[in-house]
């Protein structure tokens, strides 16, 4: 099996797995029926913006919205009914481009809108399905916080009714009301730094950024207590906490053991021992995580064709999918889509972007300027113009 990363980002909708293959393989959007194992290529995507595990994908009805990793203005829409891609450029530069971080950290759905949370920008981009448009919300921050400090952990947001809670690098939580976009800062006791969290029985189950203690935090009463897990302390020991029937499953980032915590007694026990993936202890056990609206959690297992599903009622399934590096390329080659349609429709936008850089309309670094000619040539070649 090829050991390169297979997924850039993924979404599970019922029995359908949707994912963008990573730029290490071949960048395209794919659909897999988890019951029949049938795979289908839906079309090529511009890898330089979307085929990365830090990209985000959201879905409302038949519409997929894909946020880029590093280009803040360029969103991608895919209409599943009409099999149509469309590149959407936002009307304004919403912040200075910073190619060292992900442009967006989290996406949540509320009603008929998707909300994409920006990194180091104090903005939220909302896609409204009813009007089929994008709205930029510029956040007013509490005194003492700057937008540069708002660097959030990837896919760590928790949505409670219309309030969005996000742990961030400085420590504490940011609460954003998605109705009026009021922002508040919530201090966490002991300056506890949280990497990811889940809401279970009115508590935030918070995974540490460092150490081996889980914090249960009641954000309204500020009540809290710790649960110590018998592992060696280190950076980001757990990827996520998963609500699984009468237990909480602690998904490891690098370790070989999945621990469980009893919801009533808080007793910690070993649940699953995973295979060691490599001699390198920093190899991640799971690459991607996705939680659907029903409370089910899906994990893509590293270096395998397995998709693990933990349901909220305590069921567990390990789905397999026949998607490899070789047949990803074969699926694309056999696809009946008009390959050039997407690029022909978006080519003027792409070329205009690079020409603006050459004209000096925006401040860019030297490497970007040097690559302008290559990028223009690549876009023209893709569109066969």
Features:
four-stranded antiparallel beta sheet; mainly beta; 28 strands; 5 helices; 385 residues
Topology, element by element:
Elements: E1 7-13, E2 16-21, E3 28-33, E4 39-44, H1 47-50, E5 56-60, E6 63-67, E7 74-79, E8 84-89, E9 104-110, E10 113-118, E11 123-128, E12 133-138, E13 158-160, E14 163-167, E15 173-177, E16 183-186, E17 194-200, E18 203-208, E19 213-217, E20 224-228, E21 238-244, E22 247-252, E23 257-262, E24 268-273, E25 286-291, E26 297-301, E27 306-310, E28 316-320, H2 325-334, H3 339-359, H4 366-370, H5 372-383
Antiparallel strand pairs: 1-2, 2-3, 3-4, 5-6, 6-7, 7-8, 9-10, 10-11, 11-12, 13-14, 14-15, 15-16, 17-18, 18-19, 19-20, 21-22, 22-23, 23-24, 25-26, 26-27, 27-28
What does this structure look like?
The longest helix is centred in the last third of the chain and has 21 residues. The strands form seven sheets. The chain has a four-stranded antiparallel beta sheet. It is built from five helices and 28 strands. It is 14% helix and 41% strand. A hairpin with a 2-residue loop joins strand 9 and strand 10. About 6% of the residues have low confidence. With 385 residues, it is mainly beta.
Task: Summarize the entry for a quick read.
The chain has helices at residues 47-50, 325-334, 339-359, 366-370, 372-383; strands spanning 7-13, 16-21, 28-33, 39-44, 56-60, 63-67, 74-79, 84-89, 104-110, 113-118, 123-128, 133-138, 158-160, 163-167, 173-177, 183-186, 194-200, 203-208, 213-217, 224-228, 238-244, 247-252, 257-262, 268-273, 286-291, 297-301, 306-310, 316-320. It is mostly beta strands and 385 residues long. The strands form 7 sheets. It has a 4-stranded antiparallel beta sheet. A 4-stranded antiparallel beta sheet has the order 5-6-7-8.
